[in-house]
Write a structure and sequence with these properties.
The complex is a heterodimer of chains A (234) and B (266). With 234 residues, chain A is of the alpha/beta class. Chain A has one domain: Metallo-dependent phosphatases (Purple Acid Phosphatase, chain A, domain 2, 4-Layer Sandwich), CATH 3.60.21. Chain A is built from seven helices and ten strands. The longest helix of chain A has 13 residues. With 266 residues, chain B is of the alpha/beta class. Chain B has one domain: Purple Acid Phosphatase, chain A, domain 2 (4-Layer Sandwich), CATH 3.60.21. Chain B contains eight helices and eleven strands. In chain B, the strands form three sheets. In chain B, strands 3-4-5-9-6 form a five-stranded mixed beta sheet, covered by helices on one side. The longest helix of chain B is centred in the middle third of the chain and has 17 residues. Chain B starts with a strand and ends in a 17-residue tail after the last helix. The interface between A and B is medium-sized, with 33 and 36 residues. β7 of chain A pairs antiparallel with β7 of chain B.
Chain lengths: 234, 266
């Protein structure tokens, strides 16, 4: 069977948007072999527990859903005292004070526990799939990000394709770096080296639930490197 | 202006004295210190008091942070579990002997210092624990200098001094369906100040650097001192004897093969 990946992010608790995308996936040819969900499963767009349960349903089995954490999950972990920090300054700064109570009310402890078991991302073939960047789930990468930062993140990713979802945007951009000369002098000598970075790709996978009535995601065939950007009205 | 930049003193008062004397002879205008005043060595209080009395601008190192915040060696340097155990013993000893006012001083040190287009950090602009090794990919190194919004980035943490020039970096970004954008970086420099009190360049001499802003010349300085005095004090204080052994040889010591699965505690 031809490997055909569907890669989504940013459901943000929007069950209607998720159902619409799942229906769209059933229609895709060649059939989808792997479903990647790059974080932000939960958010403030609807029913967090329902989305968590939906992603665990057996009817998704043939798609082998591979799910990792995103920015919203990290906020949730901090809020429930199971994260790196016991505070949520990013949540308050980006979503306002009221978001703290709303997020707390919107999700059960058992869902938090399940989310806590999810990985940071996936390294598959020559691809890295994460929510933000190899540095953090919070970091937003887009084609407008400083080219040097993009190079650094691709080096850290140790992958030819870096899929990310934090921006919620769909994009497909190629980065190539060449001709950097590095001269190092130590107490014992001097060494010169030239660095380059063969062409790498940064892919924004869109957002399922962030925009009302319009979901977006990408399809990718690792066999031929083909990428398709998809939109679904719901 | 002529700056002397010192780093990683690690409680080695003998080495600090020798380096300060050498700096005095070089007629510099200002000294900067990149942290790690304490840890490993037997005189943490005396070292901090000396730095404070000379009013040397200093940023916080990973050891200084760990003493203040509690052992928290994420992305740590320990290459083996045995090395980590020794590090923990040194941490506990330092924590026990440190004077409260010294701890308060270490707590208020900034992560970064700036002077014009120069930036001073302990490890990297990202973290006190990140190593900017001379072998780091050139574009990743360039990103660290740009992240610091500097032309010259001074760091320590590796205990081996070097100066690295990054020239002619060119990057092409092409968004689907659009014209490629080209980015060209100007020359940037990373200067590693080495280590005053725990050198690892293969000789026991203390190391530091001098930077001349007028000529942009970097001089790596190597200063002999009576390291045997410090070695004896390490043993007297009951610190791990391997610290004296490696200080006398100017090298890191680690049992890599014993602990291939070392995992940081954090």
């Amino acid at each position: 069977m031809i490997a055909h990946w569907a890669i989504l992010s940013g459901i943000e608790g929007n069950l209607r948007a998720l159902e619409a995308v799942l229906r769209d996936l059933q229609r895709q040819r060649p059939p989808i072999t792997t479903l990647y969900v790059l974080g932000d499963i939960i958010g403030l767009k609807g029913e967090n527990d329902a989305v968590v349960q939906r992603l665990q349903m057996p009817d998704l089995e043939p798609l082998e859903p591979q799910i990792c954490i995103g920015w919203w999950e990290e906020q949730c972990f901090n809020l429930f005292g199971v994260g790196i920090s016991g505070e949520v300054p990013e949540l308050i700064a980006q979503q306002g004070e009221a978001a703290v109570g709303r997020l707390w009310e919107s999700i059960s402890r058992s869902s938090v526990q399940w989310l806590r078991s999810l990985p940071f991302g996936f390294h598959e073939l020559d691809c890295l799939l994460v929510h933000g960047s190899p540095v953090s789930a919070s970091e937003v990468l887009t084609p407008a990000t400083s080219p040097v930062v993009l190079c650094d993140r691709l080096i850290r990713a140790d992958a030819n394709q870096l899929f990310c979802g934090r921006s919620g945007e769909l994009f497909d951009c190629w980065i190539r770096a060449e001709a950097l000369t590095s001269e190092v002098k130590t107490l014992d000598g001097r060494e010169e080296q030239t660095f380059d970075l063969s062409q790498r790709r940064l892919i924004g996978v869109g957002s399922v639930g962030r925009q009302p009535s319009m979901a977006s995601y990408v399809l990718y065939q690792p066999g031929n490197n083909q990428l398709k950007q998809c939109f679904v009205r719901y | 202006m002529k700056y002397a930049v010192i780093s990683c003193i690690h409680g080695n008062y003998e080495a600090l004295n020798a380096v300060l004397l050498d700096i005095d002879r070089q007629r510099v205008d200002q000294i900067y210190c990149l942290g790690d005043l304490v840890g490993y060595g037997p005189y943490p209080n005396a070292v901090v008091e000396m730095i404070r009395s000379l009013d040397i601008p200093t940023c916080q190192g990973c050891w200084d942070e760990d003493i203040v915040m509690g052992l928290n060696a994420c992305e740590c340097s320990y290459p083996s579990q045995l090395a980590e155990k020794r590090g923990r013993r040194a941490h506990e000893w330092t924590n026990r002997v440190l004077h409260p006012e010294v701890r308060d001083y270490l707590a208020q040190l900034p992560m970064t210092l700036r002077q014009g287009n120069l930036c001073f950090v302990h490890g990297s602009p990202n973290s006190q624990h990140e190593y900017l090794l001379p072998s780091m990919h050139g574009f990743a190194a360039l990103e660290r200098v740009l992240a610091a919004q500097a032309e010259v980035l001074f760091c320590g943490h590796t205990h081996i001094p070097y100066v690295r020039y990054l020239r002619e970096g060119k990057i092409r970004v092409q968004h689907r369906g659009e014209t490629p954008q080209e980015f060209q970086a100007t020359v940037k420099m990373i200067v590693n100040a080495g280590s005053v009190g725990e050198p690892r360049h293969g000789r026991p001499n203390a190391t530091y650097v001098i930077y001349d802003t007028d000529t942009q010349e970097v001089t790596l300085r190597e200063v002999p001192y009576d390291y045997q005095k410090t070695c004896a004090a390490i043993l007297e204080q009951g610190l791990p004897p391997i610290f004296a052994w490696r200080l006398a040889r100017g090298m890191e010591f680690a049992e890599r093969a014993d602990d291939p699965h070392h995992v940081c505690q954090r």
